[in-house]
UniProtKB/TrEMBL annotation:
Taxonomic lineage from the root: Eukaryota, Fungi, Dikarya, Basidiomycota, Agaricomycotina
Xref: Pfam families: Diphthami_syn_2, Ribonuc_L-PSP
PANTHER family the record matches: DIPHTHINE--AMMONIA LIGASE (PTHR12196:SF2), DOMAIN OF UNKNOWN FUNCTION 71 DUF71 -CONTAINING PROTEIN (PTHR12196)
Chemical reaction(s) catalysed: diphthine-[translation elongation factor 2] + NH4(+) + ATP = diphthamide-[translation elongation factor 2] + AMP + diphosphate + H(+)
Transmembrane spans: none
Protein name: Diphthine--ammonia ligase
Length: 738
């Protein structure tokens, strides 16, 4: 792609241009927003204005045309989300007008380089503008660890100096020093005061005097220092650049993509995929590889095409189900024909099926708007229909869409799409006060390419938090910088990539991305979609290795216990982009929430913390525990139950596996499992080819009286397993504590 480089003059915007080139996207022009005349520093939420006078000189050094615009707007819309439409008079609209001008002069421009590292405020607005202009945001520095990023900048040959200091420990004498000279001091101040090594807290700002992409070196001929706050702890001072010139580099040759990759250390990996994995990811890949080395055969053969066809021949005439519990709303088993549709199956186009499903969901939510939906799961009969479904789906959402998982399963004949949705009606409230206990809905919706995690390839958010519960979108093993899957395919590498993406999402949420402020979080449960059942043991090993690594970590991303959280592994017919694995995790923030109204008739039981216990004793200590309780129960060869509960956070999440239909009716269930089903909000029932859907529906609904009024979705799949056993039937439930 041909790139427009957004320039602030600082280290981040210049280094991201080098990243763009290394990833095969050469810049063709640069653009910068300038403060009004005689204004050295503007009060802007969006733009660095210190040192912007050097932008014309930088564009000359790059040998690229420069486009500028005076900033006229103000930070009017300062919400976490910029919104569905432009805000008149907002400073973001200056960026839109600037990039519109560049694109008019360079119609072949396809992308924009932006040097955001941590600022969601800046990233969201750039992505919003790019979407309106049909441009792709390239933010390769996004979420990179600052202790690794700063040395990479220095080692690449980029030279940037400090032109503003405003952080504790930084002094006026540090102005004019380059990053190489300041490296030791910045790391020291980080260890003492928590100063952001790359200045992401506004502690310092820079201008770039040299880069491997510069044809000339910039020389500062005249400067002066201005002290605006003489605080002895954190003085604020500026280096004002009054005159600069260019010094040609002898024998300079324009940088190629290969040159840039070499400078940044790409293509030097010891093993295929090293560029895309961190150390924990490499450990996961190695553990899974060892499993394959040890296996002499596959665990279980995948279901044949004949069995898939037999599942598709089955019919299901269930109507959709809806459940309201504790402020949550769940809608299950939604097809275009589970509501009052007046069209027959063979009369409806695929787009009309999608729209009919959303009509059912909207009517079920009424008067709550569709915008409060936290997550949607989309089951489609043919992955080849995905582009059409995705386009029709996108018409129903704008900014901050729900989290989503999408898989192909052998749906009953005539049904091409099946939905289930979960929403929280209280999330319409604005603000994030202590009294609301985090009920406000917040989304992590990253659309730009980076090295962090995949940009969304559809109208979904990577994660949505509401009422202290987090749903991550299903993660497939795309390479974040390109959105391609590894080629050649490799399950150990793909599993490691999937779970690295999961960890990257959690890390971004914990570091405040998307307006979150998570001190800790817990995995409530996970669903792993495994495209080939020969990879079952590999998927199990990848997840258990991830859990073990977090248990041993000094600063874990999420807290775990000796019992792994509930996990169900399922084989669909196919996954998006023919991926080998899709992983979706559900988490709790660890924050408590107030009790909300329940439907009447709840069973009042409580189980102990002990694994395998069948006790219904009222353990008051468990009620007060701020930690999650994980319970498990197994009757070998017949049934397995496992559940996580965070009582203070009013949340339960569990899975159960059954050997056959008869084991449902005769299931030995601990009291805590009965209590959990009584508080279920949504239930997914996965059944394998050997089962008849009509019989399963009757048996499942007879398992517990409450299920008849719950939002239950029946999903045909090819194979089912927990971390310990393989099953013919599986249940996943999501509910609230009693």
């Amino acid at each position: 792609m041909k790139v427009i480089g957004l320039l602030s003059g600082g280290k981040d915007s210049c280094f991201n241009l080098l990243e763009c080139l290394a990833n095969g996207h050469p810049p063709i022009a640069v653009a910068g927003l300038l403060p009004p005349p005689q204004t050295d520093e503007l009060d802007s939420f969006m733009y660095q204005t210190v040192g912007l006078s050097l932008i014309p000189t930088i564009s000359q050094a790059l040998r690229l045309p420069l486009y500028t615009r005076i900033i006229q707007g103000k930070p009017i819309n300062v919400d976490a989300e910029y919104g569905d439409r432009e805000t008149e008079g907002d400073e973001t609209e200056d960026l839109f007008e600037l990039l519109k001008l560049v694109k008019e002069n360079h119609p072949d421009a396809e992308a924009v380089s932006v040097g955001a590292i941590l600022s969601s405020y800046q990233r969201i607005r750039v992505e919003h503008v790019c979407a309106r202009l049909d441009l792709v945001s390239l933010a390769y520095l996004w979420q990179q660890p600052q202790d690794l990023l700063l040395p990479r900048m220095i080692n690449s040959g980029l030279r940037a100096i400090l032109v503003k200091v405003a952080g504790v420990g930084l002094k006026e004498e540090h102005l004019g020093k380059d990053l190489g000279q300041m490296r030791r001091e910045l790391f020291k101040l980080n260890s003492i005061y928590g100063l952001h090594i790359c200045g992401e807290g506004g502690e310092y700002e820079t201008v770039t005097l040299d880069s491997p992409m510069f044809h000339d070196t910039i020389v500062l001929d005249e400067t002066m220092t201005e002290l605006t706050d003489p605080s002895p702890v954190a003085p604020v001072a500026h280096l004002l650049i009054q005159k600069a010139s260019l010094q040609p580099k002898p024998d300079y040759k324009p940088l190629t993509t290969a040159d840039a990759r070499a400078l940044l250390g790409y293509d030097l990996e010891e093993e295929y995929g090293d560029d895309w994995l961190d150390e924990q990811g490499k450990e996961v890949r190695e553990s899974v590889s060892q499993v394959y080395s040890a296996l002499s055969g596959i665990t279980k053969q995948s279901s044949s095409s004949e069995l898939i066809r037999s599942m598709e021949e089955q019919r299901s005439d269930r109507t959709f189900g809806i459940c309201r519990n504790g402020g949550w709303i769940s809608i299950g088993d939604v097809t275009a024909f589970s509501g009052p549709s007046i069209k027959k199956k063979d009369e409806m186009s695929l787009e009309e099926e999608v729209d009919e499903c959303f009509k059912i969901i909207k009517n079920a939510l009424h008067p709550t708007p569709l915008s409060v939906v936290q997550s949607l799961t989309v089951y489609i009969a043919n992955m080849a229909d995905f582009p059409v479904i995705n386009k029709a789906y996108s018409a129903h959402f704008h900014s901050s869409p729900p989290a989503r998982a999408c898989v192909e399963v052998p749906l009953p004949k005539g049904t091409r799409i099946l939905f289930e949705a979960i929403a929280f009606e209280e999330s319409r409230q604005k603000g994030n006060t202590r009294n609301q206990m985090g009920r406000e809905r917040r989304g992590l919706h990253v659309q730009g390419l980076s090295h962090w995690a995949p940009a969304n390839i559809g109208p979904y958010s990577q994660a949505v938090i509401v009422n202290s519960r987090i749903t991550l979108s299903g993660q497939i093993p795309m390479i974040p910088a390109t959105l391609a899957l590894p080629d050649p395919p490799s399950f150990p590498l793909e599993a490691a990539l999937c779970l690295k993406h999961v960890r990257s999402l959690i890390r971004a949420l914990k570091e405040g991305t998307g307006g979150s402020d998570l001190k800790r979080c817990f995995i409530e449960g996970s669903i792993g979609w495994v495209s080939s059942w020969s990879d079952l043991d590999g998927a199990r090993t990848a997840w258990t290795t991830t859990l073990e690594a977090e248990t041993e970590a000094e600063n874990p991303l999420f807290l775990t216990s000796s019992i792994p959280p509930p996990t169900l592994l399922v084989q669909p017919s196919s996954l998006p982009r023919s991926a080998k694995l899709e992983w979706q995790s559900f988490l709790h923030t660890g924050q408590t929430s107030p009790r909300l109204p329940r439907p009447t008739g709840a069973i009042s039981t409580f189980a102990s913390r002990t694994s395998g216990s069948d006790s219904d004793s009222d353990d008051e200590e468990n009620r007060k525990s701020p930690e999650p309780i994980i319970r498990s129960f197994e009757k070998k060869g017949s049934v397995e139950w496992i559940e996580s509960e965070f009582r203070e956070g009013d949340a339960r999440w569990g899975v159960a596996g059954f050997n056959d239909i008869d084991s449902i009716s005769n299931a030995i269930a601990p009291e805590w499992a009965k209590s959990s089903l009584n508080a279920a909000l949504s239930v997914k029932v996965f059944y394998s080819p050997k089962q008849r859907v009509s019989e399963i529906q009757d048996r499942i609904l007879s398992l517990h009286p409450y299920l008849k009024s719950c939002a239950v979705t029946f999903i045909p799949v090819l194979s089912i397993a927990t971390l310990n056993n393989e099953w013919e039937l599986g249940i996943v439930w999501n509910g609230v504590s009693e």
